[in-house]
Amino acid sequence: MPITDLLRQNARLYGDETALVEINPLDEKRGTWREYNLIETTPDQQYRNEITWKEFDERANKFANLLLSRGVKKGTKVAILLMNCIEWLPIYFGVLKSGALAVPMNYRFSADEIKYCLDLSDAEFLIFGPEFTGRIEEIFGQVKKLSTLFYLGEDCPTFAESYEKLVPLFTEKDPMIQITDDDFGAIYFSSGTTGFPKAILHKHKALMHSCKVEQNHHLQTHEDVFLCIPPLYHTGAKMHWFGSLLVGGKAVILKGTKPEWIMKAVSQEHCTIVWLLVPWAQDILDAIDRGDIKLDNYELSQWRLMHIGAQPVPPSLIARWLKVFPNHKYDTNYGLSESIGPGCVHLGIDNVHKVGAIGKAGYGWETKIVGPDGNPVPQGTVGELAVKGPGVMVCYYKDEKATNDVLKGDWLMTGDMAAEDQDGFIFLVDRKKDVIITGGENLYPVQIEDFIRKNDAVKDVAVIGLPDKRLGEIAAAIIEVKEGATLTEEDVNAFCMGMPRYKRPRKIIFAKVPRNPTGKIEKPVLRKIYCGESLVAAQNEIKL
Predict the structure, then answer these.
(1) Is the pLDDT of residue 42 over 80?
(2) Which letter does DSSP use for residue 170 in this model?
(3) Location of each CATH 3.30.300.30 domain in the chain
């Protein structure tokens, strides 16, 4: 059963019930979805859009019919470059209903990264929002197969077509394109430490399995309301929402992360399930401690589950959370885009005594920890975590070597080093890859290093992650200055203004950069020097 059948089912069973709500706490009114007249203004200028399951399905059908009229067929790739909004998911499902592959793109991509990913995925169509006009204009006419651009928003640029003007012209009748579980459904992007992303190809059966995993882990019912804050381009947010899709439950898309906004949304929309990143949970607790948030001002009795993913979770944070919210269930989820996002490993809502672990194999998944020879290691021994299940990717699209590096038969090698305790719970010990996870976002050290090396005063540079209480990790740049040159921390920070803000290193260290005889940076040495005590403390918590 392809995932598009779930939308049809919900439109039939719950057509007049709310499917999606968008809350925009900012003083900026979206000019979208005018045909439904569903934009409301609250006294504090918070804008709220709402659509039913029937309207969701109709909007997806209209976009699918638009795509089909332009020659889209099975195998066509349609890229989506949008900020979170109420239109995001209907557009995604419109792509799937046309038989095409959805290609969600990171809204933080630079123009060069956008071009690279469009070329890599063989995207022929792109729908983008006003936030990306400048970046798309930079690469317009340079992408190999891209032929059609749709624009969502006001003031459509001349090189694109207005989505909002075109979609109403098409029928809301379902095109009923035949889709099977074994058809290709989506391409997501990931990346290692070598720079630009890889394109991850998934079948429809993987998307469907993620629905079942999420609902099995968090026990969603039709009455549950899911609060979605992270970006929908990522497998994490979308696959957690898939649990709501499976049961026809309401979801709320909140465009903002301030503690007051989160609490207000939970209260006003009667949210029962909230997925947070570590920094947001920290911020909520800090705001409560400061008295900025008074719990008595909110209706929170219905909130039953808070779960965290995308980065290691400090046990102290959850202990603190459960003191403030003693009636909450808690879960943490581990996954990769290569395993269709969260849930191939999860802690489980009844295992709060094991906070610090990522958990055990998720619903329908298998795990093993292996040594360099590929054989399982004894319990308590560190090795590489491998996962197996219906959500494993087909391949890295157009990259046979990278595919062969991580797919060993039916097993996906995660690149994460882990160990299993005596109860079978898995603890991450280190990452084989050098990816730095800061506030749930992946930073790729090579990209930052390559940028800093452009400074004429820099002889060498290495970027590593340092533990951080709020963000999980921060990027630290160890810089070796050329003999006779001078370079200050202020100079480096000013130079790094040329990078996106989230990529800029938060700590600058001037020191020699060690390299091994083959010329590779010895990052394990740097980690031992600059964060060895923290790593030792973390590993001691495992209690193998």
Answers:
(1) no
(2) S
(3) 438-540
Q: Which CATH number does the domain 4-256 belong to among 3.40.50.12160, 3.50.50.60, 1.10.10.10, 3.40.50.12780?
A: 3.40.50.12780
Pairing of strands 40-41, 47-52: antiparallel
Structure tokens belonging to residue 454: 């452009």
When pLDDT is cut at 50, 70 and 90, the band that residue 35 belongs to is very low
CATH number, span 438-540: 3.30.300.30
Contact of 439 with 277, CB cutoff 8 Å: yes
Domain with CATH 2.30.38.10 in the chain: 304-431
Nearest-angstrom CA–CA distance, 23 and 39: 10
Domain limits, CATH 3.40.50.12780, in the chain: 4-256
CATH architecture type of domain 304-431: Roll (2.30)
Mean per-residue pLDDT for 22-43?
A: 52
**CA distance readout (Å), 216 to 42, 252, 290, 391, 419:** 36, 21, 37, 15, 25
pLDDT tens-digit profile of 443-482? 878 778 878 988 989 988 999 999 988 888 999 999 999 8
Residues with Cβ within 8 Å of 450's Cβ and at least 6 positions away in sequence, in order, are 195
Q: Name the band, by pLDDT with cuts 50, 70 and 90, for residue 285.
A: very high
Alpha carbons 348 and 219: distance in angstroms, whole number: 11
Residue with tokens 């006419």: 141
Looking at residue 311, its pLDDT comes to 65
DSSP class of 34: G
The answer, yes or no, to whether residue 41 has pLDDT greater than 50, is no
Pairing of strands 250-254, 273-276: unpaired
The letter for the amino acid at 206 is A
User: Which pTM value belongs to this model?
Assistant: 0.82
Joined tokens for residue 84 = 């979170």
